[in-house]
Amino acid sequence: MPTAILTGPPVPGSSLDGDLRSLGFDVRVSSEAERTAEILTAVPADERVALVDARFVGHVHSLRLALTDPRFPVAAVPGALTAQPAARSALKGAVTAVESRGAEHTVRVDRALPDLLAEDLTADGTAVHRPELGSLVATVPDDPQARNEARQAVAAVDEEAVRLRSAVKARDGFFTTFAISPYSRYLARWCARRGFTPNQVTTASLITALIAAGAAATGTRGGYVAAGVLLLFSFVLDCTDGQLARYSLQYSTMGAWLDATFDRAKEYAYYAGLALGAARGGDDVWGLALAAMVLQTCRHVVDFSFNEANHDAVSNTSPTAALSDRLDSVGWTVWVRRMIVLPIGERWAMIAVLTAVTTPRIVFYALLIGCSFAACYTTAGRLLRSLTRRAERTDRAAGALHDLADCGPLAEAVARAAHGVVRGLPALAAPVIAFLGAAGLVTTAALSDYGSPWPLIAAVLYAVTSGIAVARPLKGALDWLVPPIFRAAEYGTLLALAARAEVEGATGALPAAFGLVAAVAYHHYDTVYRIRGGTGAPPHWLVRAIGGQEGRIAAVTLLAALVGGTGFTIALTTLAAVIALVVLVESIRFWVSSSAPAVHDEGETA
Q1: Distances from the Cα of 262 to the Cαs of 204, 209, 255, 267, in angstroms?
Q2: pLDDT tier at 9 (50, 70, 90 boundaries)?
Q3: N or C: less crowded end of the chain, CB within 10 Å?
């Protein structure tokens, strides 16, 4: 149990002790810095500790935000400070320093000890998180009049209303903001009061989506209607889990992993359910389902790569960004621009409605058209920003792009051999070379007869161009395009080869390719969220074990050249199963470990 130490002179009639106990703290009392140090030393080193001035007046949620959020090693509001085990030694040093200054009479006795400690920790380079309180109150009054005024300020604010508002993601899509969040926040509170955790709600959302996929797979009108309703309810639960996490501050590493991966798993499982349902009615739409998954995944990679490339860029401004900022001042343009990128709320609503009233083929046509327009809109804007800004990209950004490229031993060998040659190439060489290799590969795979050696030859050349593209640090203005180009090349080649194989009688090649792309896409999403958490990409052995993007392309094109008929389907299925097993085992090991970061999507709408 975490320990809260009350410091400073006691205040008769204060409810602070009870407030802290309601937050799960074991409360101990200290009136002097020396006694505080003794209590701090006695608290086990693997426990969170909080210091709160006994004169504190404020909302309980102010204390909750400062003292219970698991994402920050040190956090503080006026009059209260907390340190998790990782920051306990820094806190102890700060307490010792304050004691020393107090003995020399250089510390104002009326200053709250937690505030002094927060200042010392910040001065020593320790990051102290200070949550945004908004209208919430957190203060240490100096006299009875100030205490009375602070209590009146507390009474004037509806704390629960503020807590409910703050449970909703600050930036979200139009459909989510106006059609889901107005009531899902109350569902989140209902879950919190009954002891449900965000992970349980996330799991319920996944199960609901899988049931929706099963209903769609029946191929009946009743099944399609049920699937649409269940998909919308799954999305309500998907919003609720994040709101529950923010409402009760129940962030966790496991929750980060579930939140980061289940949205894609739900959506792509639903695509598979629609394809199975259509097949029951005699309409083969597996190619459309795979194309929709490829397009959606490539859209996300564009987002991820651009954001990582510019995350910590110096002089990160451009006329395009300035125009966007000016448009943000016109309220309706914000919502229009959020809607036309077809974020997850709008996209799932469209899928659900079209599933209920039309056919799977129309659903996929709408998805492909809508996502294609959204991809063109967002990519064009990012291209303009990149070309019109003068920014110096860091080694960290270049490293993140290299990890997102997901190159294996073949491309790495070429990169080492070509390292000295590429130094004299122009700044735009990397994306241009990557694009030429990718375009040649996908075009060859799409136009060649099944069994032809030409796709394999193109794959070998593609491995060479991939290596050249990543031979030097990816710090150019458009180098963030390299990872999405590689994703389009790999997924597009699989789609083209599987479609050709189906034409030549390899029954089930497209569903097998769907499974293979899903397994590889999971690996790529997993890479993104590890990088965002600051722990780096998956280990090199994992990338090597699954071949890297160019190695997998070479393997699939070799199989297409050597194996005919249903053998190609079996080979793709086997490859998908092996990659999924290796990637999932390593991913689960990482995300349930104590070192995994608690990353949550506070700003994304895709």
Answers
A1: 11, 10, 10, 8
A2: confident
A3: N
Phi, psi of 287 (to 5 degrees): -60, -40
Q: What is the pLDDT of residue 217?
A: 98
Q: How many CB atoms lie within 10 A of CB 114?
A: 25
| Cβ 500 vs Cβ 512: under 8 Å | no
pLDDT higher than 50, residue 215: yes
CA distance 158 to 164: 10
Separation CA 198–CA 187 (nearest Å): 12
Alpha carbon 340 to chain centroid, angstroms: 21
**Top-confidence residue, 421 or 584:** 584
Give the whole-angstrom CA distance, residue 25 versus residue 4: 6
What HEC string does 106-158 produce? CCCCCCCHHHHHHHHHHHCCCCCECCCCCCCCEECCCCHHHHHHHHHHHHCCC
User: In this structure, are residues 405 and 483 in contact, taking their beta carbons and an 8 Å threshold?
Assistant: yes
Question: Which of left, alpha, beta for 79 (phi over 0: left; psi -120 to 50: alpha)?
Answer: left
- The residues, ordered by sequence, that sit 6+ positions from 582 with a Cβ below 8 Å of its Cβ are 542, 545, 546
Beta-carbon contacts of 250 under 8 Å, excluding residues fewer than 6 positions away, are 197, 198, 244
DSSP 53: E
d(CA 47, CA 42): 11
Q: Quick one: pLDDT at residue 325?
A: 59
Q: Are strands 26-29 and 3-7 parallel, antiparallel or unpaired?
A: parallel
Strand 49-53: give its sheet, edge to edge. 26-29, 3-7, 49-53, 80-83, 74-77
Residue 330 has pLDDT above 70, yes or no: no
Give the H/E segment covering residue 432.
helix 429-447
Measured between alpha carbons, how far is 383 from 477 in angstroms, rounded to an integer? 9
Say if residues 57 and 150 touch (Cβ distance below 8 Å): yes
